[in-house]
Amino acid sequence: MIKPIFIFLFTGVLLAGHRTSAQDFHFSQFNENSSLINPALTGASGILKASVAYKDQWRTVTTPYKTYGVSVESRLKTSAWKAIEGKSMTFSKQSFSRFAGGLAFYSDKAGDGNLRTTQVNLSLATFVPINKNSNLSLGLQGSMVQRKIDFSNLVFSNQYGGSGYDASIANGENAKSSSFIYPDLAAGLNYNYAKPEKLVVANNQKKINIGVAVYHLNQPKQSYLVASSPKINFKYVLHGDFLIGIPRSNIAIAPAYLMQLQATNYEVIAGTSIKYYIKEDSKYTGIIQRTSVSFGAFYRYNDALILSVGYDKKQQFGIGFSYDLNLSGLTKVSKISGGPEITLRFNSSNPYLFQKKVNP
């Protein structure tokens, strides 16, 4: 396990040395929106996952920014279960699924100009087993993006005459269109490790995801103006999330980090959640699933403290709520208020889903 982790960390150091500008979607609960941080995470969390996300921010500063997201991802076709003959009984063992697909829709509206971004992501991932507890996955993503703005709601300096602002005066901008559409490409690599938990009382589970991804591989052009056609710079993403059970307790810690670098801009989020298990599942499924509540604190560098709370019912149904407390130079007008975010999630833990029935 050490060697793959070293490779990812070394790659991260190399990328971090190249600080690499369009505004992309971002959520404080970044691990709940895998298609935005690494297409290689598609299908990594189980057989089937569906989620809905909503974020509201800067309501105390200006017209609030609102972001919505809906995503579904699934292993495309897990192989038929293999029948294994025992001495006195016949049972089945699940085969490894090597492919997964995901579809995600995101929409964002910002500011007085109703700057709207709508994006549809189609992601594909393939998994390569390393051993019984770990695998590498490679993901590719194709997207269609639309950006749209309402110029009639904007105020320009050219529209100020001798008597003040006059909306009938031309704004002086040579706009070719109020909207445009472009394709976008991304790719990523992820390392996954999961140590099965044999006994509930042991609480010795360990899970690791470490990945790297590059977005805007085709460097699409975007512009509302006739004489301008800038390219979107590459965006490099480094991420990791961990789950470590504290033996002989009902507690696990779940640290995570996210680094995004694009041109001269960067975003760094790091922190941890603490999970408290309140009920165990009566069925053995390889990695025992239990109901839990979680409390987390994350820090977005030079921007905000993110406080979160979550509830997971047997790792199948989950709800997460977070709130950004703004700590940047904008606090004079934001009054520390950043904005709330809520996520709803469904995971299918049924290993027989989409399986072919095999007669012993």
Shape: globular
Sequence of strands across the biggest β-sheet: 1-2-5-6-7-10-11-12-13-14-15-16-17-18
Number of domains: 1
* CATH-derived architecture: Beta Barrel
Low-confidence stretches: 1-22, 79-95, 282-287, 351-360
Task: Summarize the biggest pleated sheet.
Answer: 14 strands, antiparallel, barrel
State the share of residues found in helices, binned by percent.
Answer: under 10%
Number of strands: 18
Mean pLDDT across every amino acid position: 80
Describe the structure.
The chain has 360 residues and is mainly β. It has one domain: monomeric porin ompg (Porin). 5% of the residues lie in helices and 52% in strands. A 14-stranded antiparallel β-barrel has the order 1-2-5-6-7-10-11-12-13-14-15-16-17-18. Strands 3-4 form a two-stranded antiparallel ribbon. Strands 8-9 form a two-stranded antiparallel ribbon. The longest helix is centred in the first third of the chain and has 15 residues. The radius of gyration is 23 Å and the shape is globular. The protein starts with a helix and ends in a 12-residue tail after the last strand. The N terminus and C terminus are likely disordered.
